[in-house]
Design a protein that fits this description.
5-stranded mixed sheet; disordered N terminus; 3 domains; two-stranded antiparallel sheet; Nucleotidyltransferase, domain 5; alpha/beta; globular
Length: 340
């Protein structure tokens, strides 16, 4: 039910935005047509017709008894930019709308669709083709050193509640460049789904990475250990810190966070181990749950200190994965309201 409500809201918001845009364009087309026919020319609204060309519907009007078609210059300009509408269709499909939803949202005042069913289907299929092409390239040529794996939850049509997410793997290459390696749908808590995700990378020739940075999801951790037992697994300190701070009162958080940052930025592994033990001894009695969170998987939480200093901070968090989706999230609110 919640998924249907969300889909309905998306369709309504997109429809409202499209109606506003369409109304403005129609008014401009009317004005341009009147200019071409001359001041005071009668427009026969009942004779409005639609001419379908290459899957796109172009508005033309006839004036009075004239049999001449009128095409304002604005329409020619819009026709040269139909890729904008194509991009909008792809955005709508990714946002969770079906082909029928998209057709309804693009329906014109006169009851005719701006795009034919075949055109919408063809544009939607482009996503699948681009994704398959993305998954094909040989990964053996990528000098992958540091790997990062995380799950991103988005409102996809294939999603059922929050059980399915986008499983994402990014990498830092030997030359320092960043690369998005693979995306797939799956249960973010499922060891099986993560294993299949990683196996796809291995089938494409991905070499064994030096490190793999993850959050604390048990299924993901098991999949990493099973797929790359030789790699050093690093626990994301951002996720770990947030989990610890969530278990203590607000007044305690600043002091505990300062201790946690000191542990993260320790000069070496031994110093970090000593600082962690001091913090656990200090807060153990008052906040046992938080300290259990610090103690849990501590070896992986300290592992980034085994790397060269220049790589420690960037390799100690899965922020690289999340940053890959920041631009998309920043733009999405523009499509969610009628004032976009």
């Amino acid at each position: 039910m919640a998924v249907e409500v969300r889909r309905g809201t998306q369709a309504e918001d997109l429809t409202r935005t499209l109606i506003q845009l369409r109304k403005l364009i129609e008014e401009l087309l009317e004005a341009g047509t009147a200019d071409m026919l001359g001041a005071g020319a009668a427009m026969n609204g009942a004779a409005r017709s639609m001419v379908l060309k290459d899957g796109w519907t172009s508005p033309y009007r006839r004036s009075g008894d004239s049999t001449a078609w009128v095409s304002p210059p604005l329409w020619a300009a819009l026709r040269r930019r139909t890729e904008v509408l194509a991009h909008l269709v792809l955005e709508m499909y990714v946002r969770g709308l079906t082909t029928r939803d998209i057709e309804d949202a693009l329906r014109e005042w006169g009851g005719e669709s701006v795009l034919s069913h075949a055109s919408v289907s063809r544009l939607s299929e482009r996503l699948r083709e681009e994704y398959e092409a993305f998954c094909v390239p040989d990964g053996s040529g990528f000098a992958v050193v540091y790997l990062f794996a995380d799950a991103i939850c988005e409102s996809l049509r294939q999603q059922a509640g929050l059980q399915q997410a986008i499983l994402v793997t990014c990498a830092t290459l030997r030359d320092g460049s960043k690369m998005l390696l693979h995306m797939s749908l799956g249960n973010k808590e499922s060891e099986r789904d993560w294993l299949e995700h990683f196996r796809s990378l291995v089938r494409r020739g991905l070499p064994t990475p030096l490190t793999v940075t993850t959050d604390g999801a048990p299924g993901l951790i098991k999949a990493v250990d099973a797929m790359w037992p030789e790699a050093e697994r690093i626990r994301c300190w951002v996720h770990k810190m947030q989990n610890i701070l969530d278990k203590v009162p607000g007044a305690v958080r600043p002091g505990l966070k300062a201790h946690r940052v000191a542990i993260r930025d320790a000069a070496d592994h031994a110093q970090r181990q000593r600082l962690a033990e001091e913090v656990m001894a200090k807060y153990e009695r008052s906040y046992p749950s938080a300290m259990e969170g610090l103690r849990e998987d501590l070896a992986a939480g300290l592992a980034h200190l085994k790397l060269p200093p220049v790589r420690r901070r960037s390799s100690g968090t899965t922020n690289l994965v999340e940053r890959s989706f920041e631009e998309k999230r920043r733009r999405l609110p523009r499509f969610r309201t009628g004032n976009a």
